Amino acid sequence: MAEAVDAAGALAGATRVLVRRLSDVGEMFLAGGDGEAEVYRVFEREHPEAPGDLVYGTTVIQPGLVGEEYFMTRGHYHVDPGAAELYFGLSGRGLILMQNAQAAREVAIGPRETVYIPPGYAHRTVNTSLAEPLVFLVCYGVRAGHDYDRIRREGWRHRVLRGPDGRPRVVEAGEAP
Ligand code: M6P
Ligand code: ZN
Predict the structure, then answer these.
(1) In CATH, what number does 16-175 get?
(2) Using CA atoms, how far apart are residues 127 and 132, in angstroms rounded to an integer?
(3) Is the CB of residue 133 below 6 angstroms from any atom belonging to ligand 1?
(4) Domain boundaries defined on the chain
(5) Residue of 19, 20, 28, 42 to mutate, ligand 1, most atoms within 8 A of C-beta
């Protein structure tokens, strides 16, 4: 049966909902954040784990800033270096940060836009709008796995901050905002 995504981004067939608040993820922001404000939530449809199964769902990142840094996901590598992921924008606007040992780049995402995350790239999603949530569909292999420690150790080379003109800009880590 088809599973609808409602206007707020909730997936009807979700079997798991993860909510990340500033109290959970505040430390990832340059300025450090705390409190009960919701940063993002993930609606996941899990399946019994057969090797070729897919996990799919939606992610909703709220609009907001910690200091001058936009709300974003933690970001992770896949444990399986061969596992890719696909995003499809539903509403709002954002940037996907991708990074591996050689390269770091950003890809914009918006409604009806597809972003492919190749195997071996850490990925983090940033809501660059302060007016509306960023909602996107995700799909990846059930055996991909989430490795949060590796990218935390390596550090993100790019950050997305609100510039003096009030618009998002990508800065190198260590560069003054
Ligand atoms: C997307 C997918 C999920 C991921 C979620 C939040 O929905 O990539 O696998 O869990 O974003 O990202 P993170 O787990 O890095 O905080
Ligand atoms: Zn992933």
Answers:
(1) 2.60.120.10
(2) 9
(3) no
(4) 16-175
(5) 42
For residue range 105-131, list pLDDT tens digits in order: 999 999 999 999 999 999 999 999 999
In angstroms, the CA 43 to CA 56 distance is 8
Task: For residue 91, report the distance from its CA to the centre of ligand 2, in Å.
Answer: 20
pLDDT at position 176: 55
Which residues of the chain, if any, have pLDDT below 50?
none
Structure tokens that stand for 109 in this block: 């995402």
Tokens in use for 55?
A: 């996990």
Q: Which two tokens stand for residue 51?
A: 């090797």
Q: What share of the chain is helix, strand, coil (3-state, %, to 5)?
A: 5, 45, 45
Q: Say whether pTM exceeds 0.85.
A: yes
